[in-house]
């Protein structure tokens, strides 16, 4: 098994981070760099790959091969890196709520960070809605992240310590997920991950979903619809040609796939939509 220090070193090298990670500001910078370097997505599921979530497999998939991944991979990597750096972190299952419609199982993962007496949530695995900052629970005001997008974490059930992660963009509020303060064990995530990539009814088996954070925009792909989300407007492009799709995947979403794999994705999820 690969040594965790080699994984941490390789991860930070891929992000061009040379300074040590010690403060909340450092963790925020780490999250932003992560979102820009490693695309979110399920393309590898749609070309027939499995999704192992042990740390070595996650590292090889995201950092070495640049295949992209979803929450069980993205947030696993962030959790293990912060843990290795000496931070007090917990791994937690969460529920994507999408403004409460529809209600789905606990098929999301977040990281909770305890720092100087306060608790913060980190989530680099919720696609184009991922916050690029560390968010304090019960903060009096939303926190600015990127492209004018703010985030807020507040309790929705104080007796059971259930919290909601909310995004605020152009004064519109959107509840992304909810989680509690009870930490989970690795096998909990194995079960949820297996459900996500093996259940034929899940979104991950039926739609191509990819995203990545750029310097001045969020790039987001859902099947044939490609969005460039700027701070002032959103540009929507309908993909028509294979070359157009391949350029987007490789050059804007930073997803590394062979020509044959891209052709399979194009024919099954772009051309037919």
TrEMBL record:
Q: Which Pfam families match?
A: Acetyltransf_2
What domain of life does the native source organism fall in?
Bacteria
State a single Gene Ontology molecular function: acetyltransferase activity
State the InterPro entries in the record: Arylamine_N-AcTrfase (IPR001447), Papain-like_cys_pep_sf (IPR038765)
Q: Which family does it belong to?
A: Belongs to the arylamine N-acetyltransferase family.
Name of the protein this chain belongs to:
Arylamine N-acetyltransferase
